[in-house]
Design brief:
The structure is a homohexamer. Chain A is α/β, with parallel strands linked by helices. Helices cover 45% and strands 16% of the residues of chain A. Chain A has ten helices and nine strands. In chain A, the strands form two sheets. Chain A has a four-stranded parallel β-sheet with strand order 2-1-4-5, with helices on both faces. A four-stranded parallel β-sheet of chain A has the order 7-6-8-9, sandwiched between helices. In chain A, helix 4 packs across helix 9. The longest helix of chain A has 19 residues. Chain A starts with a strand and ends in a 7-residue tail after the last helix. Strand 3 of chain E pairs antiparallel with strand 10 of chain F.
Chain lengths: 252, 252, 252, 252, 252, 252
Amino acid sequence: MRILLLNGNTSESITRALLTEARHNAAPDTTVFAAKCARGAEVVASRSAEVVSAYSMLETIATIKEPYDAVLVGISYDTAVSALRELLAVPVVGMTEAACHVATMVGSRFGVVLPGARNAAFYRERIVACGFEPRLAGMRVIDSSAAALYADPENSLKLIRNASQALVDGEHCDALILAGAALVGLHRKIQPDIPVPVLDGIACGVGMLESLARLNFPKPQAGSYSVPASAELGNIDPALSGLFAHPAGQQS
Amino acid sequence: MRILLLNGNTSESITRALLTEARHNAAPDTTVFAAKCARGAEVVASRSAEVVSAYSMLETIATIKEPYDAVLVGISYDTAVSALRELLAVPVVGMTEAACHVATMVGSRFGVVLPGARNAAFYRERIVACGFEPRLAGMRVIDSSAAALYADPENSLKLIRNASQALVDGEHCDALILAGAALVGLHRKIQPDIPVPVLDGIACGVGMLESLARLNFPKPQAGSYSVPASAELGNIDPALSGLFAHPAGQQS
Amino acid sequence: MRILLLNGNTSESITRALLTEARHNAAPDTTVFAAKCARGAEVVASRSAEVVSAYSMLETIATIKEPYDAVLVGISYDTAVSALRELLAVPVVGMTEAACHVATMVGSRFGVVLPGARNAAFYRERIVACGFEPRLAGMRVIDSSAAALYADPENSLKLIRNASQALVDGEHCDALILAGAALVGLHRKIQPDIPVPVLDGIACGVGMLESLARLNFPKPQAGSYSVPASAELGNIDPALSGLFAHPAGQQS
Amino acid sequence: MRILLLNGNTSESITRALLTEARHNAAPDTTVFAAKCARGAEVVASRSAEVVSAYSMLETIATIKEPYDAVLVGISYDTAVSALRELLAVPVVGMTEAACHVATMVGSRFGVVLPGARNAAFYRERIVACGFEPRLAGMRVIDSSAAALYADPENSLKLIRNASQALVDGEHCDALILAGAALVGLHRKIQPDIPVPVLDGIACGVGMLESLARLNFPKPQAGSYSVPASAELGNIDPALSGLFAHPAGQQS
Amino acid sequence: MRILLLNGNTSESITRALLTEARHNAAPDTTVFAAKCARGAEVVASRSAEVVSAYSMLETIATIKEPYDAVLVGISYDTAVSALRELLAVPVVGMTEAACHVATMVGSRFGVVLPGARNAAFYRERIVACGFEPRLAGMRVIDSSAAALYADPENSLKLIRNASQALVDGEHCDALILAGAALVGLHRKIQPDIPVPVLDGIACGVGMLESLARLNFPKPQAGSYSVPASAELGNIDPALSGLFAHPAGQQS
Amino acid sequence: MRILLLNGNTSESITRALLTEARHNAAPDTTVFAAKCARGAEVVASRSAEVVSAYSMLETIATIKEPYDAVLVGISYDTAVSALRELLAVPVVGMTEAACHVATMVGSRFGVVLPGARNAAFYRERIVACGFEPRLAGMRVIDSSAAALYADPENSLKLIRNASQALVDGEHCDALILAGAALVGLHRKIQPDIPVPVLDGIACGVGMLESLARLNFPKPQAGSYSVPASAELGNIDPALSGLFAHPAGQQS
């Protein structure tokens, strides 16, 4: 099967890191290829930048010519996941929701380590929206910008390790999620020192999509994820216009 | 004070209807003026069209030259409310959240009447996100498109009355919310026949904004609604680019 | 419009402080006048004293001759709010619920600073009853009696500032509520030092009532806030007896 | 042990019916005696009448000379339970909360049959306040006033049976609560026809109090049910004044 | 009445301690006798050992010849409570759920002190399953094995006292539950130093069962606790086989 | 990879049906083999039979000699899942939790169709325990025993179709779960007539396990799923005794 990794950030290096991680976890017969957005922030870090990113993700996917069987949303706010799930006929999963699903299959309650106090509300809102709050034991913020993470990775790893251990000791978490696309891949570096599973959303998302693709559900004909009526939207890119005119087109 | 009514739909007639309703409920010294989006759907009716609408709302507000003291989001999914709240220094309220606030100040639990089964999940998700689900008694869908509402208004009113009374009798609602920008103003037509308050989001939103504006809170310097770091976003309109470069600019 | 500020405490000085705050926030065309209870505690500080206060509030309102368009309950337990809302035809709002409504329109989750550990359960129960618990991030108690607050206001302000900052830093609150009529007005003194909006229930309540009054809902004819059947209650004050005989009388 | 059955209604006949039921379920060495309020409604049927009842209950208990080891609140809104629990040193239980406790020890989820649509919100609010909403499967209203219940008991029993069976069949309840002091004792008449346990709050409350009394907890010295500071309350009955001056006096 | 105390642990000494505690709290006319399991762990301390314990409890009860009117499950995970409640015609209560019921009749929110971090999730899951999470203020783990508790009881008591006081001070608990059969009876030793009621599940359970037995509900004929269809189970002990063939046999 | 399908029922025909379904959905390089219990009911249909089944599942797995990389629990109550997850080093998933995870990745809220009113509480309790209740839209019971399902499959399919459509129309479900091992495979027969995805727990579980196995988490060293201390359990089968003596042995 072919998974499209759709990055809501425009950063080339994050896209590469996400793709590496996705491929690392994919089944042998799974191909992963990536697309990044043309508009928006290098690293989305606010609700307003996320709005631009969501739009750009729709524009981007409308231009993808290569076939794909599933879409992995590679931005940790799970930006545009429900819009894409509605518009397309193939499975769509976000990296943070995927991590929550896996966390609740390996433990009782989970913790979240995340960079930047500003983000704490965003992730909590996402977890509430998915209905996972009853399984959320706690969150810890590491005060480290993406830039700082890259500048002094050893210190960042130390901060992440300390936050992780504090969640295990103080909140009795059975699993930990490292949130944020900027942290992708770091779970493998801290896992040896942490006594519970440490989860990465990309790794989890690849598996969830492989499962969903094999289940091969028909596109809903009713409910909130059924094909929206073909709509004419003004002043948008022709490719996107085409997608709205023929939603879920891949299956028809 | 001056309220900007920002319509996420591109329909001129809905914009006028919303503006009429807003002005009907505004205090004598409140001025309301409207802006509608340049891109997107006439009437947003899907999650994917909402993504375009959200982006278009940011673009639109970036070009508004007239001063305003508050923003009323005139699309019943409360599209882009949290992004605007973050980006601006003035109060921002969505029409559906406003109705929920008012409903819970006049009754114990409320009901929602909404057009189109597809929308039931959207409104529930919004109500859950706002934390009002403990106060939601029930929802009733009227199977009537916006087009049908306009084509046969008498029949639509009958459907709305029946759904409203069913919520009062069967779910013991103390208040009712008519959801959907397309229903704006109809609450006044059915109120005489319905034994509990019937709420319209625009009417409620104007009042909430007048209150918020008078409270005159400073723009947060911490937390998830603090001013986001000035960000450079690629490939966006210069006006929007300027807004991201100087968020919350009206106060600085 | 005219707002009746009904203080459930018998303290003259608190009544004056509440009235000052209410007037400070009222619209130019809003008149606020106050009534305090004849029976009960100077400062209600227990569930049992609250029972006396609730009764006294009904007795008091039954004797008010001046017309009013809305009632602001000036006791932070929101004492008798639902009884008054049922009995009267005009909007009634409590100061703590009003603050919660405003808090959730300016931020994601809010914190509460409150005086006296005894009160922690009272406020939480009120917040749960209103359905706002999903938006409550945390509470901090300052161990300071009303007497101490007045005796050493500088120290009290310091305690409040520290508790507020701790809620912002530790619980990622986007807004803070200062609970307790005894703290009325202090929000303005600490706001300059606190990076998120600091809310006062009286200030918030005035605005909510102005909004509700303008919406001008009919008195419910069904549901739990409909006019109760005219009832004969034994051994009560004639004025109160009259109110029960003709509930919601102002509108009939 | 001695249980004081404190009726918040002033009706002599309801008091007798409650007392009969309480004695029917008491252990051999338990004595139950009743007190009814001097002020207020014959049958409390509104939030405002409940405020009078609560005050009258405090006045009444302040004059009780006979010793007692526990208080059963005989009004189905559980009026004044938390105030009495705070003020006294002996256990206090309300009839509706008691039924909820028992219901959740005999089944998974329970249903509630209640008279009068107006009451639906009251009972739900009480159940939410107690934290039992996750165990509430549904409610059914029988449209029958207390007067009608007495005028045509056979028809009322039929309505109650039908509502009960509907809750078992439609909501899969494992237990049923008949709410409302006016229905006291009817559970025994319908039990033979209903396939799950039918609970009466008075019957349940007596047992809960016997258990609590034997556990013999000390009066809390901290927390929200600790002895409130001795308070001077103005313009109240001398006996009640004495109770506030020496709360929890029976144990000191 | 006769209560069967069914210990899911095979430890003779814990059985004796539980029985002593149960008798200490029983009414004069209540007889308590104990049975312990033949299979399984001395002290159940894992989910997997609990599975063995549950099975052993069914085997054990199938062989009890003495009549009993109620069953108290003496293992703090409330192991097999719902299975026993289904299979038998008499009331069945677990020690932890019983403590939760009592806690919520004496206070607003309660805390839990428990031995061993491994157990924190177990107790929380049990409290969530019972629906008491809205009333749970917090948990504190004392890092002390059952062995350590017995080896240095003074130190253990000190740890329990400290954890208890921390819950009162930091979480504003109105009541405390000591969880774990291994702690049985210790509540009396720490109560003098702790300012809120300290609850023991066995003490609470005896009272709940005395109440339930007196209510004398019929065995449900519908719902999830009705008599299961007589079932033939392969390869089980003849006595247990007989119980499955004639469930709820004591009443038929 | 190799998945062990562990059936908690002793029925040979159900085991075969589950195995067929599992293999139908497995990846090409996944091998599935089944084991069924030696003790207990042909078809588990009560909480008490489930206790026997859980024990038998542990006994059974202790004797499995063939290697396996994951365990799929093939009984729709998800019997013993948490015990197995604790005891083993490989991933363990239950068929009902797996279906809930998938349902919430393809829709907003889901419905459950289940056979036998007795089971409604069991499935709800399981869904609550997993934390999925916020996403549960409703349940419909088909009154059809497993025997009736086999005797008149056409009628059963009609009942299932009707219940499914009712959940879509009345509760606005975006996905449906057919609960109960006895219904395994029927989802494919009704899918063509139902407008939203119809989920089967076995199909979903296979995919979840393939994902979890590839993620290859270390066995937790802390938390509630860490390796339990090696324990000596009395009077159990030597093979099971060995498993308790060396839990998680496959990985060490």
